[in-house]
Amino acid sequence: MTEVQRRQVRDEAEEWTVRSTTEPFRGRVTGVRTDEVLMPDGSYARRDYQTHPGSVAVLAVDERQRVLILRQYRHPVRQRLWELPAGLLDVPGENPLHAAQRELFEEAHCKAGEWRVLVDFYTSPGGTDEALRLFLATGLSAAEGDRYAAHGEELEIEVERVPLAELLRLVLAGELHNPTLAMGTLALHTALTTDGIDALRAADSPWPARPFN
Predict the structure, then answer these.
(1) pLDDT of residue 148
(2) What's the confidence (pLDDT) of residue 156?
(3) Cβ(59)–Cβ(153) under 8 Å?
(4) 38-72 residue pLDDT tens
(5) What is the pLDDT of residue 149?
(6) Regions of the chain where pLDDT drops below 70
(7) How far is 144 from 157, CA to CA, in rounded Å?
(8) Residues identified as active-site
């Protein structure tokens, strides 16, 4: 197969016919939707999935190539996981960069001088419509002012800075399980060993999955 003949590898928008849709559950932030979707053979199949406003996360790396990570309890999996600073896009149309900057401040009391888009992805497209934009933040420094008043699980957040090479080893060894941390670690390693971080997208790049103002 020649380069001309090869199919272009990229995700494309598409929507199959939905005969009916209901929302059997609606929580404070997320819900569950049930759609009856027309299949290629003419039958209809039920698809249940979580509706989600979207999320942002921050891979913040310092001048020594140490990544800022957090550990907190996650009840659904009954584990205390190491993660990246992250949060919901629970304000319709909210600028994801502004949300990411807020999360870095609130969870780690840090700010960053430079921001880029590291990677965009759907967290679990077979079961939820959650879209996540992961930013790369560099030029780290302590934030001014008082620390954010934590509550709930955030009261026991632990913060560490771990060398990227060590995180990469732990991800591949199966010792770290948060998908955003794993995705970010592998993406940053790839960027650094190929075209460099200057080739990453600008922080205000369009995001069709979650359009913003």
Answers:
(1) 66
(2) 79
(3) no
(4) 999 999 999 999 999 999 999 999 999 999 999 99
(5) 67
(6) 1-4, 148-155
(7) 20
(8) 154
Which single residue is written with the structure tokens 């039958």? 43
Sheet holding 158-163, edge to edge: 79-83, 66-74, 158-163
Q: What is the pLDDT of residue 95?
A: 96
Residues near 5 by beta carbon (within 8 Å), at least 6 away in sequence = none
Do residues 182 and 101 touch, judged by C-beta distance below 8 A? no
- DSSP assignment of the chain, as one string? --TTTSPP---------EEEEEEEEE-SS-EEEEEEEE-TTS-EEEEEEEE---EEEEEEB-TTSEEEEEEEEEGGGTEEEEE--EEE--STT--HHHHHHHHHHHHH-EEEEEEEEEEEEES-TTTB--EEEEEEEEEEEEPSSPPP---GGGGG-EEEEEEHHHHHHHHHTT----HHHHHHHHHHHHHHHTT-GGGSEETT---TTS---
Q: Which two tokens stand for residue 89?
A: 């896009």
Q: Which value, to the nearest 10 degrees, does the dihedral of the CA atoms of residues 135, 9, 94, 197 take?
A: 20
Helix, strand, coil share of the chain (percent; to 5): 25, 40, 40
Q: Which pLDDT belongs to residue 3?
A: 58
* Tokens standing for residue 79: 């584990």
Q: What number of H helices and E strands is found in the chain?
A: 3, 11
